């Protein structure tokens, strides 16, 4: 017998900044990124079942996404996609399994997941990671908070480098290998102007491991920033997006006395309100852009199309392949002109920041 289904959204994310700083001895890369969740989201319905240890996952696709898949990937069959979503390797299924194991309920109950997909695949928008985070959050709700926030972050880290940040459902600063996630909040001293976004995805996908391989990055010994100047640069970047890092988050979530001191020294060197720093277009940066644009002609064309459509700022989503344009209002986008210029199989969506 299933419990009453719990509905939960899994928002897409956008890396407003994404720096790949070096490669650690473990083989993972050290990154820093400011992440912002978006209004584009998947929807999940979670139920508990009386089938011990069984994870039953079904998936459906929005009309827009289904059309994109059919035209962009003509050799891909929907029965193959559904088989993947129903497999133990799917992130949402794995999230449910590790959660049940964490609380020792895998021998008592199972989980039924109905997933309605709106976020395109291989886009750099974090759809799979967000689905996994939503499963963790939803199951913890159904089990009345039996897993602590710290334990939940630990489970998320086991599932993938993007999953911990997706637990927050708000803007965040991501450091290390993605395992250090610090919540950010809007600056109180000034109005944070929220742009409208236009998401454009050509009928191509980008493999994240391939994108990392294309980046030539030096080996680094430390997983986190160690110098006050580097810290000040990070905090300036945060501020350029109309955000700030609360002091309590530094002491609560970043371990190590030396690092905590450096963070606080960095904060002391940053003006409380620097009106000369532009928002939201001045600091958009993604280290993957140069290699991905060089490798994929269609992605390069996305940048040109969005700029022609009136975007004031354009940035690659994650490691690609989606590209996102920024404007002050949706009315400023030349949508009709853009739609007439893109080919079949392209994904186009107007979105905004999720608050």
What fraction, in percent, of the residue positions are helical?
25-40%
| Morphology call | globular
Number of extended strands: 13
How is the CATH topology of the largest domain named? Alpha-Beta Plaits
Q: What is the correct CATH architecture of the largest domain?
A: 2-Layer Sandwich
Termini separation comes to: 36 Å
**SSE order:** EEEHHHEHHHEEEEHHEHHEHHEEHE
What is the domain total for the residues?
2
**Beta-strand fraction estimate:** 25-35%
Q: Please state the structural category.
A: alpha+beta
Oligomer: single chain
Q: What is the CA-based Rg, rounded?
A: 21 Å
Number of separate helices: 13
The name of the CATH superfamily of the largest domain reads GHMP kinase, C-terminal domain
Unreliable stretches = 273-277
Largest sheet: 7 strands, mixed
Nearest-integer average pLDDT:
85
- What is the CATH class name of the largest domain? Alpha Beta
Could you please describe the fold and organization of this structure?
By secondary structure, the chain is an alpha+beta fold. The chain folds into two domains: 6-12 and 40-170, Ribosomal Protein S5, domain 2, CATH 3.30.230; 185-352, Alpha-Beta Plaits. 36% of the residues lie in helices and 25% in strands. The chain has 13 helices and 13 strands. The strands form three sheets. Strands 1, 2, 3, 4, 5, 6 and 10 form a seven-stranded mixed β-sheet that branches. Strands 11-12-8-13 form a four-stranded antiparallel β-sheet. Strands 7-9 form a two-stranded antiparallel sheet. Strand 11 and strand 12 (323-327) form a beta hairpin. Helix 3 (91-103) crosses helix 5 (149-159). The model is unreliable at 273-277 (pLDDT under 50).
């Amino acid at each position: 017998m299933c419990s009453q289904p719990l509905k939960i959204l899994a928002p897409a994310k956008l890396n407003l900044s994404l720096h790949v700083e070096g490669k650690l001895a473990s083989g993972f890369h050290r990154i820093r990124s400011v992440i912002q969740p978006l209004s584009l989201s998947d929807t999940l319905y979670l139920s508990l079942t009386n089938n011990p240890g069984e994870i039953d996952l079904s998936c459906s696709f929005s009309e827009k996404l289904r059309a994109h898949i059919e035209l962009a990937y003509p050799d891909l069959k929907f029965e193959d996609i559904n088989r993947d979503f129903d497999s133990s390797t799917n992130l949402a299924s794995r999230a449910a399994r590790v959660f049940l194991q964490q609380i020792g309920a895998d021998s008592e109950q199972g989980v039924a997941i109905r997933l309605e997909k709106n976020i395109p695949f291989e886009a750099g928008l974090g759809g799979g990671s967000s689905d996994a985070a939503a499963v963790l959050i939803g199951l913890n709700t159904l089990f009345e908070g039996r897993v602590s926030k710290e334990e939940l972050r630990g489970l998320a880290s086991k599932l993938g480098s993007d999953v911990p940040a997706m637990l927050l459902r708000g803007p965040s600063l991501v450091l290390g290998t993605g395992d250090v996630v610090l919540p950010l909040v809007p600056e109180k001293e000034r109005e944070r102007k929220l742009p409208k976004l236009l998401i454009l995805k050509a009928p191509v996908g980008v493999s994240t491991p391939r994108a990392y391989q294309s980046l030539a990055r030096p080996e680094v010994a430390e997983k986190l920033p160690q110098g006050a100047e580097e810290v000040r640069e990070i905090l300036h970047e945060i501020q350029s997006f109309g955000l700030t890092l609360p002091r309590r988050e530094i002491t609560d979530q970043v371990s190590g006395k030396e690092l905590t001191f450096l963070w606080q020294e960095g904060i002391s060197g940053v003006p409380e309100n620097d009106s000369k720093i532009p928002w939201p277009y001045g600091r958009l940066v993604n280290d993957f852009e140069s290699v991905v644009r060089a490798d994929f002609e269609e992605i390069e064309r996305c940048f040109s199309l969005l700029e022609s459509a009136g975007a004031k700022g354009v940035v690659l989503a994650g490691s690609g392949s989606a590209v996102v344009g920024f404007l002050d209002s949706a009315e400023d986008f030349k949508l009709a002109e853009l739609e007439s210029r893109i080919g079949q199989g392209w994904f186009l969506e107007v979105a905004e920041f999720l608050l």
